[in-house]
Amino acid sequence: MEQRRETTATRDPSARALMVTDACALTAFVVTGAASHHDAGIVVVVVRNLVPLGAAWALSAVVVGTYRRRSWVALTLTWAVAAPVGILVRSWVVGSPTGWELGTFLLVGSGFSLLYLGAGRVLLKALVRRRGRRVPA
What is the pLDDT of residues 85-94, one digit of tens each? Predict the structure, then answer.
């Protein structure tokens, strides 16, 4: 029984690895989106987009227990709150988009943020499993 627990633990990413992966995924999402904005310097665009999203993510993750539970359900719950809140706060700060464009921006941004988060988690899981299969020398 103890050996099974140890094997499972070596195949599951740590909470720290999940946090870093999610942070990288959200940063990549923001940087990708920022590449299409030319109204300010890249650093300004990244900061004004990443700060609201990151703050909403951190708060939601604490409330949901995303890194204690370490599951797809916890990730999805966190995303379902943090992505729309972060995107809406960003739009309020920037002042655009508005009206129907805001709805489209919200749907597209939320969808792509989930895509980036999911891809990051899948890559991390594959990396952890691959490392777990290595035989120590």
Answer: 999 999 999 8
* CA torsion, ordered 66, 68, 72, 73, to nearest 10 deg: -70
**97: preceding bond cis by omega (within 30 degrees):** yes
Q: Do 48 and 59 touch, CB atoms closer than 8 A?
A: no
pTM for this one?
Answer: 0.84
Q: Which DSSP letter does residue 134 get?
A: P
Q: End-to-end distance of the chain based on CA atoms, in angstroms? A: 25
> pLDDT tens across 82-123, in order?
999 999 999 999 888 889 999 999 999 999 999 999 999 999
Token pair in block for residue 36: 């299409």
DSSP class of residue 37 equals -
Collect all residues with Cβ–Cβ distance below 8 Å to 67 and sequence separation of at least 6.
Answer: 15, 18, 19, 61
Within 10 angstroms of residue 135's Cβ, the number of other Cβ atoms is: 4
Q: Which residues are CB-neighbours of 7 under 8 A, at least 6 positions away?
A: 132
Domains of the chain, by residue range, sit at 2-133
Which structure tokens are listed for 1? 């029984």
